[in-house]
Specification:
The chain is α/β, with parallel strands linked by helices and 313 residues long. The chain has ten helices and twelve strands. The protein folds into two domains: 148 residues, 3-Layer(aba) Sandwich (Rossmann fold), CATH 3.40.50.620; 131 residues, Beta Barrel (Elongation Factor Tu (Ef-tu), domain 3). The strands form two sheets. A six-stranded parallel sheet has the order 1-4-3-2-5-6, sandwiched between helices. α5 crosses α6 and α7 runs antiparallel to α8. The chain is elongated. The two termini are 22 Å apart.
Amino acid sequence: MNIITQPHIIPADSVAATIGMFDGVHRGHAMLIEYLNQTARSKGLKSAVITFKKHPQKVLRPDTDLQMIMTLDERIDAIGKMGVDYVVVMDFDLQLAQLNSHDYIKLIHSNYGVAMLVTGFNHRFGHNRAENFNDYCRYGDMLGVKLVQAEEYHGPYSPVSSSIIRRLILAGKVDAAADCLGRYFSLQGTVKHGFEVGRQLGFPTANVGDIDPEIIIPHRGAYAVKVKIGNGPTLNGMANIGVRPTLSHEEYKQSIEVHIFDFEGDIYGQSITVYFIQFLRSEFKMESLDKLKSQLEEDRDRTRQILSQKALL
């Protein structure tokens, strides 16, 4: 896979491409990219996925509260693992947003060597998205670009979309989100120092900091999770997202804390990836630290049972 961030690098008329945000790189995206690869090979072309640094909604509506499922690097990595020849990263700006579909096709043809454009079943592009696939075909004929429309995704768990997955994550339905994604939703960060109250209760936790602020955070509560420290092995654990109401620390803001089972070691400052497997319970204030410890023991036992039947997708 080659990552392309500048125009006029890919040879003219050498690629079949598809274009979109591809946030989450979910099952529907995977089907489209597989179809792209097959179509490109059948025509003797390279395959290219064109995506954007920032979501178009964030450019058109700077005040939007839209949060992403993946960082740009995670998106590029996931797309690259699907066997494409190029991942093209474009800057979506107001100038690009004003292009009609004819000029849009002209731009990717001249700048990125696109000889064939594979569109999703219901994908629209160009200013106001006023035109349809027949219009795209007509413009493509004029510009020397073959337009191909992929079939609609009807696989397991359909309908699938990035918007649906965001809603599931926000509701804490991370297992349902995993069904749509084809893998577990994850967060990446760095292990930071916390208040270390968990250690006093026999449940030391890794406080996950440095999470990209644009990435969506699941609903507050406890989760069964799998964890990787750096490039290490996959470990089992449980996580809590919330404000720790039982402790009522006036300076405490929302955090993500992970207790890793059967683990010892100093991991402060190391990178951590948390895979959210299943929601356990909502966060609530308990009567005492003894009650909190009892609840954590119950959470741990239930999590061990859940994770004994789960592997990373």
